[in-house]
């Protein structure tokens, strides 16, 4: 288990570097019941950094289980308007936002109809994408180890040892084992910014993924530019939206994705576990979604709206980060997506394209990342003239 010092160091990293909370800001913290110690440490750190007010919102997965089990079909479609309005008001107030990830009770939803889990819209707020694209809040997402999560990740260990192991890994991937974690993160992000500059300068028309079970070509928009997780708000506040983050990403052309792709890691979506995922794309649309487990959940989520079955993100991850080399499957998108290259179904990022292409960016309620990369997946850039340029081979940058 973590000691108070480790807990506070993680909280300080999320508050001071991740969200970069400013003096006088309102801070909204999204958490779950079961994550109280880190949540309180984050709130304490936010006040130490000068927050004027810290609002903590706890969700309860058991309440959501009841909604899916006993709620009507209409109930699964119902999300009160004020939930979205709250997000927009946080943007208007130029607030900071911090969210804690990691499942508290993985497997709780396994006794439910997977299709109903996917139809539940309580996890999708279009307004969340609005404030991200308008860059009105400085925000971050960080991991919060829990006993339930530790048991899922390290099932062969006794509960106390599993939790200690998970904390050890979180400390490592968040660079808290460095004397100066912030300096370590700035060095890594400088490296990734250099990668984004080279990728953007290459002006690829498409990216091709080739590997076991994967042969997928994803088209880019004419003004698609590559970005790392070194963000800045519209008002000039720098922040790191994901901690840890090892990716570079862009917004693809939602009308151009063709081929078959196999997920290289399982993922947890809406409380449901999806394993052995294979998706076939034609003309930019996911026309077939199959999996060893959980396919119905993902299929239903992509039916929330027209953009749900199209891509909104394409991200590349090299082997020099700290997550992939551990070889651990974390069953948490924040960590697993930063261990391997990935794509995301649903909403895209307006700020990753030029003004002429904003109207072409995919729009959706959802944004679901799934991992498709690995050392055995070759990534190749294709120019408008058809030239093929190696980008990643064996997990190493070739540019």
TrEMBL record:
Q: Name one GO biological process term.
A: proteolysis
Q: Which GO terms label this protein's molecular function in UniProt? A: aminopeptidase activity; metal ion binding; metallopeptidase activity
Check the record and name the InterPro entries matching this protein. M29_Exopeptidase, M29_N-terminal, Peptidase_M29
Required co-factor?
Answer: Zn(2+); Mg(2+); Co(2+)
Q: Which UniProt keywords apply?
A: Aminopeptidase, Hydrolase, Metal-binding, Metalloprotease, Protease
One family name in Pfam for this protein: Peptidase_M29
Tell me the protein family, please: Belongs to the peptidase M29 family.
Q: What is this protein called?
A: Peptidase M29 aminopeptidase II
């Amino acid at each position: 288990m973590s000691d108070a010092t480790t807990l506070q160091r993680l909280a300080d990293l999320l508050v001071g570097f991740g969200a970069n909370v400013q003096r006088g800001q309102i801070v909204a913290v999204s958490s779950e019941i079961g994550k109280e110690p880190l949540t309180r440490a984050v709130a304490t750190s936010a006040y130490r950094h000068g927050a004027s007010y810290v609002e903590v919102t706890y969700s309860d997965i058991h309440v959501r289980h009841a909604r899916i089990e006993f709620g009507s079909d209409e109930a699964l479609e119902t999300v009160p308007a004020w939930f979205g309005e709250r997000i927009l008001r946080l943007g208007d107030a130029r607030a900071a936002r911090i969210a804690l990830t990691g499942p508290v009770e993985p497997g709780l939803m396994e006794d439910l109809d997977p299709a109903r889990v996917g139809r539940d819209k309580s996890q999708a707020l279009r307004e969340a994408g609005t404030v991200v694209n308008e860059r009105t809040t400085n925000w971050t997402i960080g991991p919060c180890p829990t006993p339930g999560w530790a048991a899922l990740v390290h099932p062969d260990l006794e509960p106390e040892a599993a939790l200690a192991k998970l904390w050890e890994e979180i400390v490592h991937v968040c660079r808290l084992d460095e004397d100066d974690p912030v300096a370590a993160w700035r060095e890594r992000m400088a490296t990734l910014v250099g990668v984004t500059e080279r990728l953007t300068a290459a002006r690829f028309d498409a990216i091709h993924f080739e590997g076991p079970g994967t042969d997928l070509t994803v088209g880019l928009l004419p003004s698609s530019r590559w970005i790392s997780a070194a963000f800045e708000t519209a008002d000039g506040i720098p922040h790191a939206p994901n901690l840890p983050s090892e990716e570079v990403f862009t917004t693809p052309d939602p009308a151009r994705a063709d081929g078959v792709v196999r997920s290289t890691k399982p993922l947890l979506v809406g409380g449901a576990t999806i394993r052995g995922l294979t998706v076939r794309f034609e003309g930019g649309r996911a026309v077939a979604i199959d999996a060893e487990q959980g396919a119905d959940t993902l299929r239903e989520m992509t039916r929330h709206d027209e953009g749900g079955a199209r891509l909104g993100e394409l991200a590349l991850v090299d082997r020099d980060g700290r997550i992939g080399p551990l070889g651990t499957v974390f069953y948490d998108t924040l960590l697993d997506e930063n261990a391997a290259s990935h794509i995301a179904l649903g909403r895209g990022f307006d700020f990753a394209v030029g003004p002429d292409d904003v109207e072409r960016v995919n729009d959706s309620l959802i944004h679901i990342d799934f991992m498709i990369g690995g050392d055995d997946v070759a990534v190749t850039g294709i120019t408008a003239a058809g030239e093929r340029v190696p980008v990643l081979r064996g997990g190493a940058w070739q540019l």
